[in-house]
Amino acid sequence: MRGSTKSSRSVAVNALKRELIREAAKRVFVARGLSAASVREIALQAGYTTGAIYFHYDSKEEIYADVLSASLAALHEAVSAAAAGETDAVRSLTAAYRGFIAFYRSHPRDLSLGLYLFEGARPRGLNAKLNRDLNERFLGVMQIFESYLGSAGMSPRERKVEAVALFNEMVGLLIAANTGRLVVFGVDVDTMIDRHVAWLQRRVAELVGKQPSKQRAQASAP
């Protein structure tokens, strides 16, 4: 029993250390960018030695992946929770949309991290395995939207394209809001969210309405 208690305490301590490292790394990555960040600077921010960082992570890319993975897990939970309890597929879909926007409005640094915005508008990745793992987490979030689009009766092809369109809309709106561009137009974020949701509902109705009834039934089947 004593050994089990000691082991549980060690796991909890390591989990806390990794969380502190992630929080410190997030600050460094946002301030410096992935290319300019260093493990030494992350260690200083976390209050640990460089050796202590390397005990938990092999590289700064691995730290970045862990930070982003935790962010995507939290996003998945937020979007799922926002849609839970709604009465139909379209209401669930629009609630998920609002949940996605709300998460990144509350965590603007996570949006920059997820899109590598501090590296400039160019493609960026980590390594093949980390990229694959992160892409799977991201696609898991977007699968929530695809699932509700399917439940609404949209065909597999249309729901895939619509999910991509939704992602582009949501990210574009968030960037416009976070950079202050909406203020230039004198429009607030909530007004634009309502407009986007109305467009979404109209698109779903139009796309589903164009499909034969048999195809709609097949698309919405579990």
Structural account:
This protein folds into two domains: 1-57, Homeodomain-like (Arc Repressor Mutant, subunit A, Orthogonal Bundle), CATH 1.10.10.60; 60-220, Tetracycline Repressor, domain 2, CATH 1.10.357. The chain is built from eleven helices and no strands. By secondary structure, it is mostly helical. Mean pLDDT is 88; it is low at 214-218.
Core attributes:
single chain; mainly alpha; Arc Repressor Mutant, subunit A; Tetracycline Repressor, domain 2; 2 domains; 11 helices; 80% helix; globular
**What is the residue-mean pLDDT, rounded to a whole number?**
88
Q: Would you give the CATH topology of the largest domain?
A: Tetracycline Repressor, domain 2
CATH H level of the largest domain: which superfamily? Tetracycline Repressor, domain 2
Question: Biggest sheet, open or closed, and with what strands and sense?
Answer: none
Residue share in β-strands: under 5%
Residues in helices, as a percent range: over 70%
Treating each run of at least 4 consecutive H or I residues as one helix, how many helices? 11
CATH class of the largest domain: Mainly Alpha
Helices and strands in order:
Blueprint: H1 2-32, H2 39-46, H3 50-56, H4 60-83, H5 89-106, H6 108-115, H7 128-151, H8 156-178, H9 181-185, H10 189-209, H11 213-220
